[in-house]
Amino acid sequence: MAKDSQVLDLNSSYSYLLWCRDFADTSILATVDDQPAGFISGYLRPDEPGTLMVWQVAVDEFFRGRRLAGSMLDRLVRQTDARRVETTITDDNQASIRLFTGFAARRSADLEREPLFTRDQYPDNHDTEFLFRIGPLN
To answer: Which domain CATH number covers 73?
Structure first.
């Protein structure tokens, strides 16, 4: 799904397997009729245990348009009892911007946006990643 999204940075299959082992409690896989439909990978920040850092969100193309990403995010926040959510998003990823601004609005939570890693910090000219901080969650 990450590869098929054509937006997410790809990681090795090994790293995804490690992620599933070590961060299963802070990640989620959605299935529809026993078919993988979407996933969110995340972790609780070590220096802010009440903050869920969402690393990747993907929904299989066949299941898009069903509000699955929003449902997964809502469930993951309940599952982790997070008080805040963070993620990073590049300016060209409108789907993620809509997902997280909609999440903040549903929760009547503040949303702060600021550059976290700028283009000049990357060795490969990666686009600036903006940190979205949402919370406190209601």
So the answer is: 3.40.630.30
**Number of domains the chain is built from:** 1
Pairing, β 84-89 against β 48-59: parallel
CB 40 within 8 A of CB 70: no
Domain limits at 33?
2-134
Give the model's pLDDT for residue 122.
Answer: 86
Which residues partner with 51 through β-bridges? 84
pLDDT at 3 over 70: no
- Residue 138: CB partners within 8 Å, gap ≥ 6? 107, 108, 109
Alpha carbon distance 109, 36 (integer Å) = 30
For residue 8, pLDDT beyond 60: no
The per-residue pLDDT for 15 is: 82
Residue 126 carries which DSSP code? P
Q: Where are the beta strands (DSSP E) in the chain?
A: 28-32, 35-45, 48-59, 84-89, 111-117, 129-134
Between strands 35-45 and 84-89, the pairing is unpaired
Give the model confidence (pLDDT) of 29-77 as tens digits.
999 999 999 999 999 999 999 999 999 999 998 898 899 999 999 999 9
